[in-house]
Structures are given as C-alpha cells and as structure tokens.
Amino acid sequence: MLLHTAIFSVLLNKIVKQSKSPHRLVVRPLSDVISDIINVMRKTPFITGEYYHIYNRGVEKIDTFKDLHDAQRFLQSMEEFNTIEPIGSIYENNFRKNNQLSGRTTKSERLVEFLCYCVNPNHYHFVLLQVVDGGISEFIRRLSGGYTRYFNHRHKRSGVLFQGKFKSVHIDSNEYLLHLSAYVNLNNKVHKLSGPTAKLVRSSWDEYIDGSRRNNKECFCKKDIILGQFKNKSEYKKYAESSLKDMVKIKEVTKGLEDLLLE
Prior knowledge:
By secondary structure, the chain is an alpha+beta fold. It has one domain (2-262): Transposase IS200-like (Alpha-Beta Plaits, 2-Layer Sandwich). Helices cover 46% and strands 11% of the residues. Strands 4-1-3-2-5 form a five-stranded antiparallel sheet. A hairpin with a 3-residue loop joins β2 and β3. α1 crosses α6 (174-185) and α1 (2-18) packs across α10. It is globular, with a radius of gyration of 18 Å.
C-alpha cells in the first residue's frame, strides 16, 4: 500500500501540473512518471514553511485501531503530541492540565500545522505544514511512539506497530495541494471503506464541510489556505467530490503500475 500511495502521489502531481485548470485533471502517460516514482521513494528533506503529504500503515498491514476508543485515542495523540515542549505521556499531560499547570497548545507552540487528515483503521494520511525546524520528524516520532505504547499495553502485545519510517512527499504546487486535500479528506471513500470498518475512520472532512469535529471536539486544522480559494464550503465540497471520481480511477491505474514495478 505504501508503494501504491507513493505512485498515486507522483501521478496525481504530474497530472495536476499538466492540467490547464487546478479544478480539472488531465490523463498523463504512465511511462513518463516511473523515474519520478523512484525519486519520491527517497528521503524527503523537510523545510520549515513547506507542505508535505505524510503517510504510514500498520506493520504487516495490521489494524492500528481495534475499536472507537483506539480511534479517539489516536486523534487525542495527534493533538497532544504536537508541541515544541515534550509532554512526556498523555497521562502526565492530563495531570498537569487538571492541576492548571498547562493549557491547550497554542499555534505558536506547535511543531506542525494540520491542513487535513484521514485516519483509517490500518493506515493514515496527513497534509502538514512544518512550522519549526525538525517539526515533522519529531511530531511523528512522538505520535508513533506514544500511541504504540498505549496500543500495546491495552491489547497485550509487544513490538512495533507502524511499518518502518513514515513516508513523505513534498507538495510543490498549489494545484497539487488542492487535489491532495480532496484525496486526504475523502481517503476512506477512495478506498471504498464501508460497514463496521468505516465507523472507525476519522477525517477532517467534517471540519471542512461543517466546521466541526466529531463528538463536538474543537477544530484544529488550518483550513483557510484551502477554503480561501473557493467561494464557500459548498463549492469546495462540490470540487472535492468531483475530484474523487478521478482519483478513484487514478488509484486503479496506479495499482496496476505497482504490480509492474514489483515484477
């Protein structure tokens, strides 16, 4: 799936760059992007002030969520571990909050800004803005480590939970950013998740369309750079849902290309 996602990201970026309009996708020959796919799998240098697509999955494709409690804990971890000053553990951080020794993290104290996210039962996607040097790597290190300790303790397991080092792709154009926001916000629909599995999905789609998070949680995505390019939320919703059809087609094509590259 990680190679599949890298192929998709490169192909989407190249297609977007050939499109005359940022709201329309144009098909591009697959043979033209193979070298770019190889390059994107290499280490991405993180630059403060730049945007990145960050993703990873459970080791051996296992589910990293078993139930709604796990899903909510991961969301909580996404917010609480996003601090310049280390919090230790979520338990310690909650203790400090209860004793009024610390408050909610302000924007100036964060390692990264979330533009959008989708957390599926066995993998996640983030679009992040790095706001301090080393912010992305440090944030993912804390998030992965903290959540893994929680998950292993709760489910009586040991060992790593996520598959190696997280993957990243630099978002180098506004058009790519727009299309990627739709891909991430609606990633569960790209994968056509349904039934009990779909209930575990957590996405920023609600923030973009309703201005709220599930369970009345406070919004934490930086949405203005995306929504500010549309007349209103309804226009963005229409754009994203229209893009979804194209992205599902691209996903099917990239799966075939993945098989070709692995032969």
